[in-house]
Amino acid sequence: MTDPQTGRDGRLLIDGDRATLAFERRLPFPIDVVWAAITDPAQRCRWFGETTIDAREGGLIDMVADGPPLCRNENG
After folding, report:
1. Cα separation, 58 vs 37, whole angstroms
2. From the centroid of its chain, how far is CA 10?
3. For every one of its 76 residues, what pLDDT tens digit does the chain have, with 9 covering 90 and above?
4. For residues 28 and 39, is the Cβ–Cβ distance under 8 A?
5. Over the range 16-44, which residues count as b (16 or more CB within 10 Å of their CB) and which as e?
6. pLDDT recorded at residue 73
7. Which residues form the Activator of Hsp90 ATPase homologue 1/2-like C-terminal domain (predicted)?
8. Domain boundaries, given as residue ranges, for the chain
9. In angstroms, what CA-CA distances link 12 with 22, 23, 40, 71?
């Protein structure tokens, strides 16, 4: 699968009956801002739209995009 924003292909990793599709992207933000976007539900909503994360092994991530990701010029 190709990432529509970068045009790069993802990596498909298969381990037994589990498959992971991974994309790598460099973001123009400090690491603490990116970490908050992943771990803080309010920040995650600003970056990705409505999300629900079941943070456990085998948990699901549901994301409902309601627009493009956070603009480059916005801060955290």
Report:
1. 21
2. 13
3. 555 555 667 888 898 988 888 878 888 899 999 899 888 888 888 888 888 888 888 888 887 776 656 544 444 4
4. no
5. eeeeeeeeeeeeebeeebeebbeeeeebb
6. 45
7. 29-65
8. 11-64
9. 7, 9, 27, 28
**Looking at residue 18, what is its pLDDT?**
84
pLDDT score recorded for residue 3: 54
pTM value surpassing 0.70: no
Closest to 47 measured CA to CA, from 55, 57, 36: 36
Token pair in block for residue 68? 């493009």
Helix (H) or strand (E) holding 57: none
Tell me 22's DSSP state. E
- Residue holding tokens 């092994």? 57
